[in-house]
Write a structure and sequence with these properties.
single chain; 279 residues; alpha/beta; TIM Barrel; 8-stranded parallel beta barrel; two-stranded antiparallel sheet; 9 helices; 12 strands
């Protein structure tokens, strides 16, 4: 199956609606995304409920702990657990972030930025190839929100992301909200970012809300997707076409029906923009 349409992040508080008796509760939701770490090595009701959703919907896996940019060796136990989960879920897509989360065995529990250098690109690409070998499937890297840059930077973020994916022959999970956050924080052109990413590598799109503090933005995933991010998404649709798109909500999580309504609005934007693209 090739993933299509529009999805939501799967959250435990929404299991009753998704798995309940109302056949229309998830009307407009084509697939769900799970956070990989929530289910690696987990059994009991959480796994049972997740797999019950998997029986009804396509699913993708999204991780936060791979630490692909760290100088620590890749965590073999983590990769083993990730592969076992992927073999069970059989996700349409699997991804993690272009970042590092710790070093010397210390997990900072944050998505930390990398210097945008040739050395970093080669380091990450080599590790991505290793991950794809272990998983036996293609892998996607997601652009993160960033708040600092490095004096050593040799290229733009979109050049860095694109070069890693070219070298590793992997794909891109393009987070439009993160492009907006980083573009605002650092003053780069968000449209140039979209134009600089190869269209054939983008296999999924993330949308989310954030905390706007006037002169800087913090990526929080605790608010609806703001209109200006949706405007940037419309431009992404014009460039990348029919790419599976989802809304992330990780805090201040609203009722399931509210997220479904928000997702339907995203679908309308995509349909509008795709109708405007010449055949």
């Amino acid at each position: 199956m090739t993933l299509q349409g529009f999805g939501l992040g799967l959250r435990p508080q929404h299991f009753p609606e998704i798995l309940g008796d109302d056949p229309n509760a998830a009307d407009g939701v084509d697939w769900f995304e799970i956070i990989s770490e929530n289910f690696i090595g987990v059994g009991g009701p959480p796994l049972h409920n997740m797999m019950a959703v998997r029986e009804r919907f396509p699913m993708v896996m999204h991780g936060v702990s791979l630490s692909i940019g760290s100088t620590d060796p890749l965590d073999g136990n983590y990769l083993k657990g990730l592969k076992e989960l992927a073999d069970l879920v059989e996700p349409e897509l699997i991804s993690d972030h272009l970042c590092w989360t710790g070093v010397h065995g210390l997990n900072m529990h944050d998505l930390l930025p990398l210097p945008l250098t040739e050395e970093s690109a080669e380091h990450v690409a080599t590790r991505v190839m290793r991950v794809q070998d272990v998983l036996g499937r293609r892998f996607m890297l997601e652009n993160t929100s960033t708040y600092v840059t490095f004096e050593e930077d040799e290229m733009t973020e979109w050049e860095f992301l694109s070069e890693i994916c070219r070298r590793a022959d992997c794909d891109i999970l393009l987070d439009v909200n993160n492009i907006y956050v980083s573009g605002f924080n650092h003053g780069f052109s968000m449209e140039a970012y979209l134009d600089g990413v190869p269209t054939d590598r983008v296999k999924q799109i993330h949308l989310a809300g954030h905390e706007h503090n006037g002169d800087y933005i913090v990526d929080t995933h605790d608010e609806p997707v703001p209109d200006y991010v949706l405007d940037l998404y419309a431009k992404a649709v014009k460039r990348f076409g029919h790419v599976p798109t989802m809304i992330e909500r990780d805090a201040n999580i609203p009722p399931f029906a509210e997220l479904v309504r928000e997702l339907k609005g995203v679908r309308l934007i995509a349909e509008r923009e795709l109708d405007m693209v010449p055949a």
